[in-house]
Amino acid sequence: MNVLALDTATATQSVALMLDDELVASRSTRTGRGGHSRDLLEAIAAVLRGHGVSVRDLDGIGVGVGPGSFTGVRIGLAVAKGLAASEDIPLHPVTSERSLSASLPCGLTVAWAEDARKGELYAACTTSGLDAEELLPLDTWTPESFARAVSELPAVRELYWAGNGPAAHPSLLDQVLPGSRNLSSIIPGPDARGIARLVCARRIAGYPASGVDARYIRPSEAELGRPGAHRAR
Predict the structure, then answer these.
(1) How would you write the pLDDT of the chain (233 residues) with one tens digit per residue?
(2) Whole-prediction pTM
(3) Angle, CA 217 vertex, CA 216 and CA 222 arms, to 5°
(4) What's the CA gap between 38 and 34, in Å, rounded?
(5) Structural domain tally of the chain?
(6) 161 with 77, same domain?
(7) Tell me, what CATH number does 53's domain have?
(8) Are 90 and 193 in a shared domain?
(9) Are residues 63 and 78 in the same domain?
(10) Domain shared by 89 and 166, yes or no
């Protein structure tokens, strides 16, 4: 299976290419303001060109749908939809914590926490690997409630943190399992390699481009002003 994957949910832009179910290229770039809109198409073109393939040679396109930066997710999803629609290629949506888990070796307990601003986190806790088990659901949490929920998980002896949440909220590491390891310097966040592996392993269904939406979780500013709007845990 030939799969192009991309993720722009955070400041780290990642693109990966698998040909015949083998990872042949990946690139990960820390972007500045406006970097995704400026650089993503060229990054994709470079990866495809480097292996002599075009969009029409792809069997599927995997895309990170968040949560994360609203703008970043929108840009990545718009580009992926455009490419998929141009050649009628299935589009495979993958959430941030799922792509991260699939990028890591099996058997780890991973707490993914990304700063959502306003004193909140996008966070989830899963096992690692292609068939990750959800231990805490992907949602918007306060740092205190997520740290408490993680600390109350049964039979977790060793915990691995990922995402920029611990850097933004250092108390997370202090409150949960002394000796927990922070993987942020190794895998800074959602990763296109994990997305590509999930798609090639047939773990993520494909849809027409028009049927794929972002997973923002937190409402927009306008929606937050409405009665009954979702608040963090």
Answers:
(1) 999 999 999 989 999 999 999 999 999 988 866 667 789 999 999 999 999 999 999 999 999 999 999 999 999 999 999 999 999 999 999 999 999 999 999 999 999 999 999 999 999 999 999 999 999 999 999 999 999 999 899 878 788 999 999 889 887 776 776 678 888 878 878 999 999 999 999 999 999 999 999 999 876 554 455 554 444 44
(2) 0.90
(3) 80
(4) 6
(5) 2
(6) no
(7) 3.30.420.40
(8) yes
(9) yes
(10) no
Of the candidates 89, 135, 144, the residue with the CA atom closest to the CA atom of residue 109: 135
Both 151 and 47 in a single domain?
A: no
User: Do residue 91 and residue 118 come from a single domain?
Assistant: no
Long-range contacts for 17-26 (Cβ within 8 Å, ≥24 apart)?
Answer: 17/47, 17/48, 17/51, 17/53, 17/196, 18/196, 18/197, 18/199, 18/200, 19/51, 19/53, 21/200, 23/193, 23/196, 23/197, 24/51, 25/50, 25/51, 26/192, 26/193
Q: Which domain holds residue 168?
A: 105-182
